[in-house]
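Aim 2 progress update. The chain analyzed this quarter is reproduced below.
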Amino acid sequence: MNNKINIWRRFDYVLFGTTIVLIIFGILMIASATQDAVDPELISRVPDQINFAIISIVVTLIITTIDYRILGGISTWLYIVMIGLLFMVLFFGVEGDGGAQRWLNLGIRIQPSEVGKIILIITLSQYLSDRYQNLDKFSTVLRSLTHIIVPVGLVFIQPDLGTTLVLIFIWGVIIWAAGLRLKHIAILSLIGILALPLLISQLEPYQISRITTFINPDSDPDANYNVLQARISVGSGGLFGKGYAVGPQNTGRFLRVRHTDFIFSVIAHEFGMVGGFVTLGLFAIVLMRILRGARQATDPLGSMICYGVAGMIFFQTTVSVGMNLTLLPVTGLTLPFVSSGGTSLLFTMIGIGLTQSVIVRRRRIDI
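Predicted structure tokens:
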């Protein structure tokens, strides 16, 4: 009983409360982006997001009560489950938005690549914590790459370039947190540069089009349409925006996929620069609290889990906002907590639950 009391005393209510605010705000923005919709799939977005939000909050609290070291102890089994789900997508996957085969229908539709993000954080953190004293050897770094190469490859061929980049970034953040040496960074950078032409040669035509359109917008006016509309939406929002659910770029449906990929454009259009900065401020609070948990963790495993979750949220937020501001190519990554997507919300909140599991078992003396 005392353990339970101590857990909830150490629970990070600021982190939890901020994620709840983002989720509620996201539901409101999805409602605005899908107002007057006639497509049944769009009409169901708000109730689906509410249902997943409730489930996500409950699951977060449950994950908090589970010692993260227990999950580390079964990391091999978790890794097998992740690979199994990603292989199932190849044979039994169903198409989602845009025609990519990324989903499984197991009674409810789930996106295994979202599951993979969280499992990879746990398994890679455990893998590196077991080899924490051997990171001065480049062979240890190479073995960590073999740990991620199969899931990254399976996600890449779905095709899902955005999530592929997220997984690679998670690996980079966790191995850096584990103590990656500068000489190894130089070697890996050289390998990455040499491998880049091979990666580009494997991209789908629409993925190449997104990159070329970003470099030269006039090369494909149709592909550039939504990027242009996003820029107009953000720019026309001004300082305080057009007002909730009345922005003409939103209500006039000039902006496509505004409930997912381009929801930040809707935020900036309806709430202006102030609304955009407040939203980014909430994400900053989430990241700072997670990084605080990483610094206070009792062991390398807990610290690396926190860094992995922070890296996942930071990368997705940066890329999502960047493409809405036309600073980065369109990748299809959504804004965590805010964009429509039940599986994404659920597993992002599981990441928060993992972080809370580390935080409630932190050292007694704050640093």
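The chain has one domain: 2-359. Residues 2-359 form one domain. These observations will guide the mutagenesis experiments scheduled for the next reporting period.
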